[in-house]
Amino acid sequence: MFQQIFAVTGMNLRNIPSRWSTSLVVVVGIGGVVAVLVAVLSMAAGLANVFDQSVSTDRAVVVRSGSTSELSSNLNFETSQIISTMEGVDIAAPEMYVVADVPKKSTGEPANMVVRGVNTSSFDIRPKLKVVDGRLFETGRNEVIVGVQAHAEFANLDIGSSLEMRESMWQVVGVFEAEGAVSESEVWADLTVAQAAFRRADSITAVRVQLDSPSDFKTVKALIKDDPRLATDMVGEEDWFSTQSETATIVIRVLAYTVAVIMSVGAIFAALNTMYSAVAVRTFEIATLRAIGFRGGAVLTSVMVESLFLALVGGLIGGAIAYFGFNGFTASTLSNVTFSQIAFQFAVTPELLIAGVVLSVALGFVGGVFPAVRAIRLPVTVALRGE
Amino acid sequence: MGRIQFLLRCMFRHGLRTNLTMLSLVTAFMLFIMLRSVAVVFETGFDAGPQTRMQTASKYSMVDMLPLAHMNVIRSIEGVTDVTHASWFGGFFEEGETNVATFAVDPETYFDVYSDFEIDPNALEEFKSIRTAALAPQGMIERYGWEIGQKISVVSTIYPAPSEEGWVFDLVGSFESTNESDGFDPFLFHHDVLRETFAAGAVGWYTFLIDDPERADVVAQVVDRRFKNSSDETRTMTESDSWKSFLAQYGDISLMMTGILGAVFFTMILLTANTMVQGYRERVPELAVMKTLGFSNLSVSMYILVEALLLCGISAALGVGLGTLVSMGAQDFMPPMIPIYFDPITIIWGLILGLALGLFVGLVPAVNANRLEIVEALHAH
Fold first, then answer.
1. Using the beta-carbon criterion (under 8 Å), do B20 and A273 form an inter-chain contact?
2. Beta-carbon contacts of residue B212 (< 8 Å; ≥ 6 apart)
3. pLDDT tens across A312-365, in order?
4. Residue A236 to residues A58, A239, B123, Cα–Cα distance (Å)
5. Residue B238 pLDDT > 80, yes or no?
6. Which of A70, A368, B103, B333 has the most CB atoms lying inside 10 A of its own CB?
7. For A97, which residue in chain B has the nearest alpha carbon?
8. Taking 70 as the threshold, does the pLDDT of residue B87 lie above it?
9. Residue A104 gets which letter from DSSP?
10. Beta-bridge partners for B105
11. Model confidence at A128: pLDDT above 70
């Protein structure tokens, strides 16, 4: 039995080159579905990565009660001082988050860029953040350092160039990296200078908290909630960032799956077409094999293997196109929660590639099974008598 | 046998193959309509109404607010007929769904500026007179299965809720705008309810009507110059342009859609061309016989070409029709910020694309059929 399967299947596969144009249709059709699905989903994965990189379990954000983003939060400076003295708190960094319109490199149109006013404690709290080019801004001066993604997305953020925000001029003095965290899409300035320039008096938008350990979260949260001087909430970074990433990734996934389902239906028709004609061309050959004693199962398997093989090749090519074409590609989009640009890199993860290959094999299976059944249903005598 | 009958016989000579090819083409054209319907909004902005409707927002960024006092200044500018204001509320109705437009507006003037929105006069009166009243676009009411008269609880990402239930509004009626902005149309309530919050005395943006669309640029400059060097400088443009620049911030959606469609149609060209070539090869002896019977070279190749055009044309028509139906119904199932705006031009492009595809894949077999030598063709078989 196995000998028969190997013999017929081997014969089929060796024959593919003589039918290359029809076979190519399956490979390209299924390759296209996989490439599109993986490429679009890699956007969602890339966006999720940014937030994953930003999260640390021993950090939290304190904002005004009820706010889900720094944009809508407003606190006075004392809040950070009160929190810094609490039991279980290692560092409490006051930060001011504002959005400024700056032209994007790609379109020249203004887009929302995050400007974060910070003092040295914000650097202590984010050890991943490192100035990789130029230097840090000096306290008290209109200088900014720009995240590597912001530098790539927005125009005129090179070191030495000046940036106008709200009638004030700022000098770009450095570029920083943060291992892919969301801060890379931001521009940082000295807190006191920024407060004056953006007319915020001494108000801040949030306090970043470094806890002594993740286990202190509950007690610190309760302390903050019960303090009569504070009308604030503390949110762990995990929850903080997951609300921010959810909306954007859901939209991308809905789009990806809708397109993939419709394209898959089209690709199945293409695969069916090819496999039916592959069977039709060999009607005589199959009948001959059956007549000299090859079993139906062997013939069926051979057709299935051919279809699966072509689909697999398509899936691998599609995955490769997505990987080499899009992995690491940088794009940016508007977050609906923070109303600012978030840059991310397409991430073609191993999981996505595996999902793509699994899909291709499934499509190949559906496309092969009906033609395979037809191949063995045809009575031998009829097939042999036919043209 | 008439020519048309003959053509159809040829086309469905290998019925299964033709049907399968057509079905894949139908799905391709369906995708074309659906993706174009998403992309078109990001490319052109949508026609948000008359070209006389302008918008003034903060110059610094769209999240900065403007003082309420700007309203009277704008109203006093020559050429401005009606002014209203609105503010982004960042509201959502259900857990996790933040993509709904919720605006705090001035009930007295909003529908003067949006006079092209259809609303029942009684509902508008009620909206004006009840402080907690809200209006929703018809599409939103259907999506959430609301009934007029019910209470709607909204949670805001910006404004802390006054009670455990969130912000509670009385839904007093619905309105309808152009179908183009469906999915972006806002849930409306009184700006007054924000009086207790930090937004007291501040609004997100102003929208106003001018009497002459030709003077849009001039009026925009006058408005912005009026607020220059104040602590709240402005940026004024037509509402359509302002939508366009907002949507552009989401990134190059149009390029992405074009990329996907490119992949789809590359496959389709290959698939259909393959079907046509196969069909041609099988028919070589028949074509030779036709020529022997006196059909001219031209008419034989025309038969082949028309067959390809029919195959692609019929599939395009079916796919476009199906895609249109799906696009028109899909908005209800999509997250509201994936706008599906169905533009009739898309249908025409779909059909043109279908015929172009037919021409492209039919050309090679048709030329071959034209050159076919009778003796050789009959000899080969």
1. yes
2. B52, B79
3. 999 999 999 999 999 988 888 887 677 788 888 999 999 999 999 999 999 999
4. 8, 6, 44
5. yes
6. A368
7. B63
8. yes
9. B
10. B86, B190
11. yes
Question: Closest chain B residue to A233 measured between Cα atoms?
Answer: B160
- pLDDT in the model for residue B257: 81
Q: B59 vs A277: CB contact, 8 Å cut-off?
A: no
Q: What is the pTM of this model?
A: 0.81
A314 vs A24: CA distance, rounded Å: 9
- Each residue's pLDDT tens digit, B94-143: 755 556 788 999 999 999 999 888 999 999 999 999 999 999 998 888 87
Averaging pLDDT over each range in A227-231, A274-278, B104-108, B297-301, which range is the top one?
B104-108
Q: Are A154 and A109 in contact (CB under 8 A)?
A: no
How far A3 CA sits from the closest chain B CA (Å)?
33
Looking at residue A137, the DSSP 8-state letter turns out to be: P
- Summarize the confidence of residues B211-227 as an average pLDDT: 91
| B324, B26 contact by CB (below 8 A) | no
Helical axes A283-291 vs A237-281, angle rounded to 10°: 80
Q: Comparing C-alpha atoms, which of A238, A331, A33 is closest to residue B267?
A: A33
Phi, psi torsion values for A88, nearest 5 degrees = 95, -10
Q: Which of A140, A179, A133, A102 is nearest to A341 (CA)?
A: A102
Q: Which residues of A touch B263 (CB under 8 A)?
A: 32, 35-36
Contacts of B35 in chain A (CB under 8 A): 259
Spell out which residues of chain A touch residue B264, defining contact as CB-CB under 8 Å.
32, 36, 263, 266
Tell me which residue has tokens 């991310």: A344
Q: Are A187 and A129 in contact (CB under 8 A)?
A: no
For A11-42, the three-class secondary structure string (H helix, E strand, C coil) is: HHHHHHHHHHHHHHHHHHHHHHHHHHHHHHHH
Separation in Å, CA A186 to CA A46, A118, A342, B6: 17, 12, 9, 68
Q: Which residues of chain B does A68 touch, with a Cβ-Cβ cutoff of 8 Å?
A: 157
Average pLDDT over residues B198-224: 89
**Could you tell me if A22 and B274 are in contact, meaning their C-beta atoms sit under 8 angstroms apart?**
yes
For A111, nearest residue in chain B (alpha carbons): B249
For the residues of A110-122, what is the DSSP string, one character each?
Answer: EEEEEEEEE-HHH
pLDDT of B63 over the 90 cut? no
Q: Is A269–B338 a contact, with Cβ atoms under 8 angstroms apart?
A: no
Give the angle A206-A207-A211 at the CA atoms, nearest 5°.
Answer: 145
Q: Does the beta-carbon distance from A262 to B250 stay under 8 Å?
A: no
* A226/A387: higher pLDDT: A226
Distance CA A337, CA A197 (A): 24
Tokens matching residue A348: 């073609």
Give the integer Cα–Cα distance in Å for B63 and B69.
Answer: 18
Angle ∠(A92,A97,A164) on CA atoms, nearest 5: 135
CB-based contact A32 B263, cutoff 8 Å: yes
- Counting residues of chain B whose pLDDT is more than 90, the rounded percentage is 35
